[in-house]
Structure formats: C-alpha cells, structure tokens
Recover the amino acids of this structure.
C-alpha cells in the first residue's frame, strides 16, 4: 500500500462542540434523491415508467420532498418532470425538487421544466472545494462565489419569467462541502442568501453534502455545528445534509449531523447513489424507530419497498443490509437461536399473563433490533439450522409446527439433526426437520401397548403433556389415573407427569413426550392423540419401538451398557 500518498483529514477547530451531549427527539425532514442522485449512478438510468413506479412508492411511504431529476440532463429526465406535472401525479402535500448546475442555459431549461407545477423546489449547486475550484473551474475563491451568486440571480430571474403561480422554494448546495474551507462555505452561502433574501415566510434550504465522504462522522458533525452556529438568518434557513457513504459511515455522519443542528436529511432508499451510495433512508428511519421516535415514514412493508427498489434500479439489496437485507433477521448460530426462542417464549407468557396482544408488548428480544413483524417481515426466516445451530434451532422450528419439546428431548433430537448438516452440507430446511422428527418419533412401528412383554421389566415413564389445557383439578387427576392404568397394562410404571407451557397443539391433537427408562437406557418417545391416555400410550410405544430399532435387547434381559451409549441415554440410531 502506498500509504504516503494519503494524508489525515484536518480536524475542525471547535473546542466547545455541543453535539456530543445532544440527543435526537424528532425526525428530520427527509428528501429522497432516489430519482436524481440514485438515478444518475445507474448503468441504465430509469425510464419514465420505472421512475414513476419508484415515485409512487416514495409517496406511499410518506416522503414529502422528492428530488425527481436533473431536467437539463436528458430528454427522459425532462419528460418525467413534465409527466408528473401534466398528469397531476404530485399529491398536494408533496414538493418535488429538481437539480441544476450554476450554468445559464441549464438553469433556464430546469426552471422551464417546472412550468404549471403548483409547487416545486429548485436546487442549485456548484462545487466550492479548493481542488474543484482549481481543477474543474480554474477559479479563485472570489470567482467561485460569483458563479454561485450569478446562478442564484438567474434562478430568480427565470422563476419570475417562467413560473407564474408556482409556489417555488429554493435550495443551494456548496458541492464538496466536506472538503471546502468552512469560512468559504459560509461566505458563499451568505452571498447566495443575500440574493435570495430568506424571510419568515420564505425559508430557504442550505444543503451541506459530503459529496465524497472523506472524514470521520465526528468531523462532519463539527463542520455542521460550525455552520449551524455561524450562519446568519439561521431561523429562515433549513439546514440540510447530504451524506455519501464512501467510508461506510454515511448513516453515522447523518445521525451525528442531526445532533449538530441538521434539520433535514437527503438520501436514497437502501443507500443508492454515486459510488458507495448516498446515506440509506431506510436505515436512518428504522434507527429512529428503534429509539422510539416515529420517522413519519411507513416501513410496514419493507419487503415490498426492497422489491420495488430492486426492480426499478436493477441493483440488488445486499442480504446483510440493515433491516431490509434478506438475512438480517435470521439466526444461524445456536447461541442466538436459544436466546431468541427464550425471548419469544417469554413474550408469549407475558401476553398470556397480561391479556395483551403480543404484538403490542415492549420489544425485548436479543439479537433482533426490531420485531420483523413491525416492518412486514415474517418469522419464517428468523431461525435457520446449519452445523452452527445447537438444540434451540431445531426445537424452535418444530415449535412452529406445534411441538414444544422438553429440554432433554431437544438435546436428543439435535444429535440426530447435527450430522445431517456437517461436512459442508449446509442448511437443513424446516420441512425436512419436521419430517425427520415425525419419522424418528411419531411414525415408528410402535408395538401395541397391551402386547405381551411389551416393555422390559422395571420400565418406567415420565410423561410431558403438551396442549392439555385442563391444568389442575379433578379432570387432570382423572386423566392421570387413566394414563397410569393404561401404562400399567403395558407393564410400564408412571413416574411423573409434567404439563408443558406450550399452548399449541400439533395437528390439533394432544402431544405427549415420554421419557422412558427401559432397561438401563433412557429413550424418548412422542405420541399424538385426541386424549391424554391415547397420546401417552403412543408415546411410550414410540420409545419402545425406537429402543428396539437401536438394538435394545429383548424384554427380560439386562445387558451391560453398549458401546456408543454415552451415558445420557441416547443410543445410536439404527442404520
Ligand atoms: C455531486 C453530484 O451529484 S452533482 C450532480 C451531478 N449530476 C450530473 O452531472 C448528471 C447530469 N449531468 C449531465 O447530464 C451533464 O453533465 C450536463 C448536461 C449537466 C452538462 O453536460 P456538458 O455541458 O457536456 O458538461 P459536462 O458534463 O462535461 O460538465 C462539465 C462542465 O460543467 C461545469 N460545471 C460542473 N459543475 C458545475 C456547476 N455546479 N456549476 C457550473 N458549472 C459546472 C464544469 O466546469 C465543466 O465546464 P467546462 O466544460 O467548461 O470545462
Ligand atoms: C448536488 C449535491 C447535493 C450532491 O449530490 C452531492 O454533493 O453529493
Ligand atoms: Mg450526491
């Protein structure tokens, strides 16, 4: 690496900075620049049809300021502005914005594109940084300021001439603000304000772009606080920021800028835009949600938002993109799955205890920053099982089919699942897990409980009843007595009965998980039936059948522990 070619970004002399102790309590004004900055960064810029689809999405989501293009750039851009205006597609509470460089003919065409619009935002920009002044414009500071002032005057002239009856709002951006000397940015903005004369009813927007993000977010916050504190006519200025994401810290830059005085943020859905993109409006908005602040934007169908953005831009949203990425609500690893499962169980218990809808309870789930349901995503993908998953993953997935396995059975079943995920075999689907479970436990060729010598002498069972809502009382006592009698007929002593928390009934039936002590081994069986006794006898039958398949000696003999028996009661599966 040729490190010496690069140098540190200079700090901002702001020793009494206030933003580090500020807090955000309200959302900023948002501007979506998907149709302009996002569009100009596509290898195939959007045609009017795709632009319209994205525009409608932005309106549906609640964006009130939408930059719809650079009308002087191309016929497509110009025509799209005309289409929105002529077909009256712009809702009354939405203000569209168009961008132009500070060049005479471009300004005229840009203003002309807005003819007939009831309201619009005209956005003028020119680069102000020393590098751009020298390389692109060949101008000194004074000449560069004059370029902005000249453009600002022309905007007023053409608005006056061409936009009768339009409520025109004005915006100026010193492009490459991050790389511009702060005093020069201020000087140019003041000069533009002298032309535009903001007043109580004529607020203007001054927009500060990083353009290319080159410093850490705290430096950007210092730059914004400096402008916030030094701009004149501050009460008539909406201080806006336009962070890009070249260093991967666009979101942080926007958030710290809000602490520093920014009242408005420009960005793109899923971080579209030049190079590494503009700041992501989805991430910023949902970050506010996680702090209990309403962003004023509807994210309740984020999958649809992602789909439309992908289809319109032709760019895929990365699977790990915050909130919207395919995989961000998926836990593959056992530790995460275990905590998520316990948190969901706790929410269920809390809902049952309080009588409140689970969806309204405070969200306290480790590893999931928001409830996927709140943004229209499902729990389908929350837990996926690979070789990195322990017992909780398969148990969680079985839970979705109505099975709530006791902990020891979870462990036993995980040992059956694990080998099927190893050796690079990857993920095992929920459907396959269910099939495995049912084949292993629910569909063994169970011997009839009352067959002679059904179980080895001394056999005992502890049963766990799920989906049996009767709880305590005489009915429960009756069910247990019947269960005991049924098992005794098969030569099995009932040791204990546990009622599980689960309220789900697999297949609408009562499920019994039986921990059976058969000879010197512990074997689990599972049974489902319409009544407790039937489910219990099926469960014990399942355990006996599994034990026989695993090579447990015939009833009556008392073998020594066999090789492969790890002492936990788990026997090797039959081949
Ligand atoms: C950071 C941003 O995203 S800024 C927005 C950038 N977006 C775009 O550029 C997309 C749309 N742009 C276009 O379609 C074209 O660039 C046009 C139509 C605007 C201009 O096209 P051209 O006239 O061919 O100029 P070109 O694209 O080469 O731009 C460079 C010229 O613009 C001048 N220029 C660049 N920015 C500005 C500005 N803000 N104000 C005034 N002049 C400017 C440069 O000095 C250069 O002038 P020169 O040719 O005399 O040296
Ligand atoms: C035109 C300006 C606001 C811009 O897109 C940038 O500087 O990134
Ligand atoms: Mg930009």
């Amino acid at each position: 690496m040729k490190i010496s070619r690069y140098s540190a970004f200079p700090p901002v002399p702001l020793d009494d900075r206030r933003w580090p102790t500020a807090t955000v309590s309200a959302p900023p004004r948002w501007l979506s620049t998907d149709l302009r900055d996002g569009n100009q960064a596509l290898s195939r810029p959007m045609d009017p049809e795709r632009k319209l689809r994205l525009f409608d999405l932005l309106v549906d989501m609640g964006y009130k300021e939408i930059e719809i293009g650079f009308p002087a750039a191309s016929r497509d851009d110009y025509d799209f502005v005309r289409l929105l205006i002529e077909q009256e597609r712009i809702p009354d509470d939405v203000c569209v914005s168009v961008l132009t460089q500070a060049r005479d003919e471009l300004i005229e065409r840009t203003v002309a594109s807005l003819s007939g619009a009831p309201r619009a935002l005209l956005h003028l920009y020119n680069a102000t940084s020393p590098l751009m002044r020298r390389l692109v414009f060949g101008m000194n500071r004074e000449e560069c300021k004059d370029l902005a002032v000249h453009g600002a005057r022309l905007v007023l002239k053409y608005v006056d001439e061409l936009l009768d009856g339009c409520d025109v709002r004005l915006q100026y951006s010193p492009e490459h603000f991050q790389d511009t000397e702060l005093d020069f940015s201020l000087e140019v903005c003041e000069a533009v304000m002298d032309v535009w004369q903001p007043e109580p009813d004529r607020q203007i927007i001054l927009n500060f772009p990083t353009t290319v993000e080159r410093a850490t977010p705290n430096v950007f916050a210092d730059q914004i606080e400096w402008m916030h504190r030094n701009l004149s006519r501050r009460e008539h200025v909406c201080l806006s920021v336009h962070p890009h994401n070249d260093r991967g810290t666009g979101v942080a830059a926007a958030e710290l800028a809000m602490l520093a005085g920014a009242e408005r943020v420009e960005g793109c859905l899923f971080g579209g835009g030049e190079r590494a993109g503009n700041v992501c409006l989805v991430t910023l908005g949902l970050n506010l949600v996680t702090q209990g602040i309403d962003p004023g934007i509807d994210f309740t169908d984020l999958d649809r938002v992602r789909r439309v953005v992908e289809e319109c831009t032709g760019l895929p949203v990365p699977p790990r993109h915050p909130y919207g990425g395919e995989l961000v609500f998926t836990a593959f690893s056992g530790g995460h799955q275990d905590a998520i499962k316990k948190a969901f169980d706790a929410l269920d218990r809390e809902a049952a205890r309080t009588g409140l809808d689970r969806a309204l309870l405070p969200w306290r789930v480790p590893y999931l920053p928001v409830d996927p349901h709140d943004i229209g995503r499902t729990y389908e993908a929350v837990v996926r099982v690979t070789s990195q998953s322990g017992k909780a993953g398969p148990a969680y997935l079985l839970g979705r089919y109505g099975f709530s396995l006791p902990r020891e059975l979870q462990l036993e079943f995980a040992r059956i699942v694990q080998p099927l995920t190893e050796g690079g075999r990857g993920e095992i689907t929920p459907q396959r897990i269910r099939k495995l479970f049912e084949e292993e436990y629910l569909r063994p060729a169970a011997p009839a409980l009352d067959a002679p010598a059904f179980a080895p002498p001394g056999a005992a069972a502890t049963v766990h009843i799920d989906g049996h809502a009767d709880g305590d009382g005489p009915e429960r006592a009756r069910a247990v007595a019947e269960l005991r009698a049924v098992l005794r007929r098969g030569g099995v002593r009932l040791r204990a009965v546990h009622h599980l928390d689960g309220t789900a009934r697999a297949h609408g039936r009562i499920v019994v998980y039986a921990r059976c002590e058969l000879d010197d081994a512990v074997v689990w069986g599972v049974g489902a039936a319409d009544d407790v006794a039937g489910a219990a006898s099926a469960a014990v039958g399942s355990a006996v059948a599994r034990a026989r398949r695993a090579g447990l000696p015939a009833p009556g003999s008392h073998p020594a522990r066999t090789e492969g028996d790890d002492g936990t009661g788990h026997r090797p599966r039959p081949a």
